Amino acid sequence: MAEYDYIEGKKRIDEILDNKLEVIEKDELPNDSDFTFKNSYFSWVTSIFVDIRDSSILFSDQDKPKVSKIIRSFSSEVIEILRKNDSLREIGIRGDCIYGIYTTELKSKIYDIFEMSMYINTFMKMLNKLLTKKSLPTIKVGIGLSTSKELVVKAGRKDTGINSKVWIGEAVTKASNLSSLGNKTGYKPIVLSNNTYINIIDQFIEKCGDNSKSWFDQSTHNEYGIIYDANLILTEFNDWIEKNI
């Protein structure tokens, strides 16, 4: 490998540590163009993670074309659902998981992200019906959502083009962890942090009626505190699936 110039490295670290870093507290997280190596933002964020259950079994299947078709079908449409929102600040794939991170300074924006979880949960019915018709294995996912104020920092190596935002707080890490619970060990597919739940429940009841609150199960997790899980589908979408697939 090329030798690491530790003398120049020491100079770069000193420059970073000596620079005055501006932490900007702002309800709405700005677009990438506003981030520099001399600032960071503290803003309201909601994150959604969609994690395939038992992916190691699927990935170990020797029929590689079959596995490729399943993963591409899944990722194509989950990304399509997640990307159609003006509040989107990052979208990506981590192994067997697809995620979206959004600026959500308003309750209505948090509800929009929650609604995506219902679209994805209903989409999984459509996908599995189509997989079954092709004699392919079906899959399950866990869908995790979390909301919090997050410190967001542009990190990487200045002047190299190698950089990314680092999300410091509960919104991203907890959504990822909650997605690993969904559709497993007694939890329903959609798992919400307490903060997400308290910000969406009033609007959900307004849309679906007083009884709809009972569609969520509350529990206390040793690591993640109070959480809510549910198996929610969109009626119009589901009816179309039943009639057309």
From TrEMBL:
Domain Guanylate cyclase: 46-179
InterPro entries in alphabetical order: A/G_cyclase, Nucleotide_cyclase
GO biological process: one example: cyclic nucleotide biosynthetic process
GO molecular function, a single term: adenylate cyclase activity
Listed name of the protein: Adenylate cyclase
Native source organism of the sequence: Leptospira noumeaensis
